[in-house]
Specification:
Elements: H1 5-29, E1 34-36, E2 42-44, H2 45-61, E3 66-69, E4 73-75, E5 86-94, H3 96-101, E6 107-114, E7 117-125, E8 130-135, E9 140-144, E10 150-151, E11 164-166, H4 170-175, H5 179-188, E12 191-193, H6 197-206, E13 211-214, H7 219-222, H8 225-231, E14 235-237, E15 250-253, H9 258-265
Parallel strand pairs: 3-5, 11-12, 11-13
Antiparallel strand pairs: 1-2, 3-4, 5-6, 6-7, 7-8, 8-9, 9-10, 13-15, 14-15
Length: about 270
């Protein structure tokens, strides 16, 4: 049976809708237990419950595909280079710190990478009442609660001095020894904000802001963002200009500003 990217995108959207039911129930009730992982980041029962549900859905619909998730690690066969041909990459609740404090900026991220390249991405932020999705060659879309789905596109701002940027976590930049670069980016722009987590990147895809960059990330923090941003006309690399979600940092722009932003960050 031939599986198309449209089929995979439909599956990812279905899985995200199921995840929203779980996460919103726990978010509203605030009845979860919080523990701390070895890297000192918080994790809730809701993170695990959401990832477990997504994994079960993938196993039922795509039993031969590999999975990489934040809470339960990697499963599935690897190729000769140590990377699966088809790998689902899951962040069950991106923005757990917000989730546990009752801040609505969090979401479920589901991606499908083929030979290491993210080709399908879904970001669902139920507390914000919005979701975004894309697949390579199929465009990027968003839908707000109660509204019709709509295509999205990045901005046309071409001068960094006219741009709005999000540097997300300043301590992350400092810990990476690049605090001066974050400050240089912020002061080069028209306006700078620390919006944080997946929302900053979706605002880039929508054209509401022009740049989002960040240090100290994992593949599951980034994989779902990449198809959405690129299908919306933008560009996503690490802060050294390397493609993909595998290098620990992120730089997402409207494409027009990408070279200038990388110059500042280097």
């Amino acid at each position: 049976m031939t599986i198309s990217l449209a089929d995979d995108l439909a599956l990812a959207r279905t899985l995200a809708a199921h995840a929203d039911l779980i996460s919103m129930r726990r978010f509203t009730a605030q009845d979860f237990t919080v523990t701390t992982k070895p890297d000192r980041t918080p994790v809730t029962e809701a993170d695990r419950e959401v990832e477990k549900a997504i994994r079960e859905g993938i196993a039922a619909a795509r039993p031969h595909d590999a999975i990489l998730g934040e809470e339960f690690g990697a499963t599935g066969e690897q190729d000769g280079e140590g990377r699966p041909h088809r790998q689902w990459i899951i962040d069950p609740i991106d923005g757990t710190a917000n989730f546990l404090r009752g801040v609505p900026i969090w979401g479920t991220l589901i991606a499908l990478a083929i030979d290491g390249v993210p080709q399908v991405g879904v970001v669902s932020a139920p507390a914000l009442g919005q979701k975004w999705w894309a697949a390579t060659g199929h465009g990027a879309y968003t839908q707000r609660a109660g509204a019709q789905e709509a295509p999205i596109h990045v901005s046309s701002v071409s001068n960094l001095g006219d741009a709005v940027v999000s540097y997300n976590s300043l301590p992350g930049w400092i810990d990476a020894g690049r605090g001066d670069r974050a400050i240089a980016l912020a002061t080069s722009a028209w306006r700078a904000r620390a919006i944080g987590d997946m929302w900053a990147y979706m605002l880039v895809a929508e054209g509401a802001i022009d740049v989002a960059a960040e240090c100290d990330l994992q593949p599951y923090d980034m994989a779902a963002l990449i198809p959405i941003i690129t299908e919306a006309g933008g560009r996503f690399t690490d802060i050294d200009g390397n493609d993909g979600p595998w290098h620990g940092t992120a730089c997402a722009t409207n494409g027009l500003l990408h070279a200038d932003v990388l110059t500042v960050l280097k």
